[in-house]
Design a protein that fits this description.
By secondary structure, this protein is mostly helical. Helix content is 47%, strand content 4%.
């Protein structure tokens, strides 16, 4: 019989949409179409052999789904930062140089830093993008300052369960936000960002 890994890979590949990226579900509505914040995560998790077989399709989708300011919109998250972090990490993995000035932080719903989670993502983006060392160091210091005494970072309402009738929630938000109540994904993302900053420092 198939190993669990084979079953998992087959399940992920079953969500690959023709000529685009990966969907989260088969439906309903726009839950069954490709999303940038899902595609990068799925691609990174696949074995090299599977990545190679779909690499050009994913690159084409990734380029076409990027916003004009260089960020990637997020279907399932409040801001663009997590999607941008994952897509930038994927491009780095593929050896594709990014020419945009990132990270992009603005005072609006989808580009602002609302939480420790957003701050962690922006820190990771800056580290991956080889932003000036002083800027990265400042972000790292701020992120470390936010760490709680128990080692975790504070969760917030970062996840958005977008209504399936909504195609582009970054333009008109439709869906309820849910809190990372124990700070698990926030803490994991903060650690990820700190590791990326260490790698960036060691490569400079």
């Amino acid at each position: 019989g198939k190993s669990l890994l084979d079953v998992d890979i087959a399940f992920l590949l079953s969500k690959l949409c023709p000529d685009s990226g990966f969907a989260t579900y088969d439906g309903p509505g726009f839950w069954g179409v490709a999303h940038p914040d899902v595609t990068a995560n799925v691609f990174i998790s696949l074995p090299n052999s599977q990545q190679n077989s779909i690499k050009q399709q994913i690159i084409d989708y990734t380029i076409s789904s990027r916003s004009e300011d260089g960020t990637w919109p997020s279907y399932w998250w409040r801001t663009c930062h997590y999607s941008t972090l994952m897509n930038l990490e994927m491009l780095t993995l593929l050896g594709i140089r990014d020419e945009f000035q990132l990270p992009v932080v603005q005072n609006d719903e989808t580009h602002a830093i609302h939480s420790d989670f957003d701050l962690a993502c922006v820190t990771g983006i800056a580290a991956l993008h080889k932003t000036g060392g002083l800027a990265v160091n400042s972000l790292v210091e701020t992120l470390m300052f936010k760490q709680k005494n128990d080692g975790a970072w504070l969760g917030d309402e970062n996840l958005r369960v977008t209504h399936p009738d909504c195609k582009q929630p970054w333009l008109q938000t439709q869906g309820q936000r849910y809190s990372d109540s124990v700070g698990l994904i926030t803490t994991a993302t903060a650690v990820r960002a700190l590791v990326l900053s260490i790698k960036g420092t060691s490569q400079q």
